[in-house]
Amino acid sequence: MYFEGSELMNSQLKKGMLEYCVLATLRTSDSYGYQIIKDTSGVIDLSDSTLYPILKRLEKQEAIESYSVEHNGRLRKYYHLTETGLADIQGFLDDWQQVMTVYDYIKGAN
């Protein structure tokens, strides 16, 4: 399921999905902005202007932490998933059954 600019994808629903996609990307290893965009490209359309506000929001919520590493003479900002972020992912997965119940209801209403 790819959500690139789909008119069928409600903007609020997409916004929430973006955050969870970013968190899920960081579940396996720490990463930086450009790599996060590349890693999610097969699933959801994510641009710099969309990603960085999400990263700031997730950092403020303590779902992720950041640190800098020198790379080719420049500092690169990396992001790390915290226990809070991991719990957020689990909460999303736990709630997914309720989302599917609503989906099935809507689908059956047609």
UniProtKB/TrEMBL annotation:
Gene3D superfamilies noted in UniProt: Winged helix-like DNA-binding domain superfamily/Winged helix DNA-binding domain
Transcription regulator PadR N-terminal domain location: 22-88
Alphabetical list of InterPro entries matching this protein: Metal_resp_DNA-bind_regulator, Tscrpt_reg_PadR_N, WH-like_DNA-bd_sf, WH_DNA-bd_sf
Top-level taxon in the UniProt lineage: Bacteria
Short name of any one Pfam family annotated for the protein: PadR
Protein name: Transcription regulator PadR N-terminal domain-containing protein
